[in-house]
Write a structure and sequence with these properties.
Distance between the termini: 44 Å
Order of helices and strands: EHEHEHEHEHEHEHEEEEEEEHH
Number of helices: 9
Largest sheet: 8 strands, mixed
CATH architecture of the largest domain: 2-Layer Sandwich
Strand content: 25-35%
Number of strands: 14
CATH class of the largest domain: Alpha Beta
Radius of gyration: 20 Å
Structural class: alpha/beta
Shape: globular
CATH topology of the largest domain: Dihydrodipicolinate Reductase, domain 2
């Protein structure tokens, strides 16, 4: 079994979750941490067991022993940091949203392909057992055709003008942070919508803090999308079908649930509680692809990420969500 040396570009809360997932994988070596602040990278490396800590991204990427980099910096820096890694010959797993708009994602994809390097957006749902179970049930036909979906993700964080969630210069908005999950639900279970309309509420900083969107399909199906920092609805997806209904959710206890309700039959509930919050499957997929020489994941292909960002662009345009000059 080949062991891959992982680097973390941008230590922080999300990187901590991913690093803890790497710890349980035999073929993943916690190798390097890169930060603009050497003290921060050293503290992160010591806490989580990385071998090397660097005071700049460039210094870390110059290490010839580094195989693959996980990026979890603010959204507006994803393109810059992904291109930096690729141009230094490193494979990349970059957190969602991949970048701010389609043009940035396309540039990242083109760069990876031109350099024959692996690139994947770190999308959590497609690798999770509850998502796979939901797809298995839908594909079995026991529920019939999907008619309508309500997909949502909301919670109420403390308002802080300096927090990235509300910072326009960092692309702060609920859509890119949590609304992306309901959009993934729609894209996965129904497909690319024909029509999109959206309305947004804006915080005191001017950032979008609550969004409602309607996806319409030529065959009459609809999907409602809701993301918000103003209500506590949790994380879920209600799928209404011809023969019954299914609820796909992740609870506050972090357990994953699929509830199948078909009239005239006993309700079935499937519960999953994966280790490391399930983040290790993203790393496993990246290393599996590298083992087989693949430059993109068949689970989250780059075409999916390109379609996803196009939909996010359409939502922002409809809801008049803008950041600052220089950001779309």
């Amino acid at each position: 079994m080949k062991k891959y040396r992982w680097g973390i570009l941008g230590p922080g809360r999300q990187s901590t979750k991913f690093a803890k997932a790497l710890q349980i994988l035999e073929n993943a070596e916690l190798y390097a941490v890169g930060s603009r602040d050497k003290n921060r990278s050293e503290a992160f490396a010591k806490e989580l067991g990385f071998k090397r800590a660097f005071g700049s991204y460039e210094e870390m990427l110059a290490d010839p022993d580094l195989d693959i980099v996980y990026i979890a910096t603010p959204h507006t820096l994803h393109k810059e940091h992904t291109l930096l890694c690729l141009r230094n010959g490193k494979n990349v797993v970059c957190e969602k949203v991949f970048a701010i708009d389609y043009s940035e994602v396309k540039e990242m994809v083109d760069e990876a392909r031109s350099r024959n390097l692996f690139l994947m957006e770190a999308l959590w749902p497609p690798f999770q057992p509850y998502y796979k179970k939901a797809q298995e049930i839908l594909e079995s036909g026991q529920l019939g055709k999907i008619i309508q979906i309500d997909a949502f993700f909301s919670f109420v964080p403390p308002f802080d003008r300096l927090n990235r969630k509300y910072d326009l210069s960092l692309g702060g908005c609920s859509l890119h942070d949590i609304g992306i999950y309901p959009v993934i639900d729609a894209l996965t279970f129904v497909g690319i919508p024909d029509g999109i309309s959206a309305k947004a509420h804006f915080s005191p900083t001017g950032s979008e803090d609550s969004l409602n969107a309607l996806f319409e399909y030529a065959d009459g199906r609809v999907v409602t999308i809701y993301s918000s920092y103003r209500t506590n609805t949790g994380i879920g997806c209600e799928i209404r079908c011809e023969k019954g209904n299914m609820t796909v959710s992740r609870g506050r206890d972090m357990k994953q649930r699929v509830i199948v309700d078909i009239p005239g039959t006993e309700q079935h509930t499937y519960v999953f509680d994966p280790p490391a919050l399930g983040y290790h499957w993203e790393a496993m997929e990246a290393m599996k692809c590298l083992d087989s020489g693949k430059k993109e994941s068949p689970v989250v292909p780059l075409s999916f990420s390109l379609n996803l960002i196009k939909i996010l662009d359409r939502i922002r345009e409809s809801a008049n969500i803008v950041f600052h000059k220089g950001l779309k």
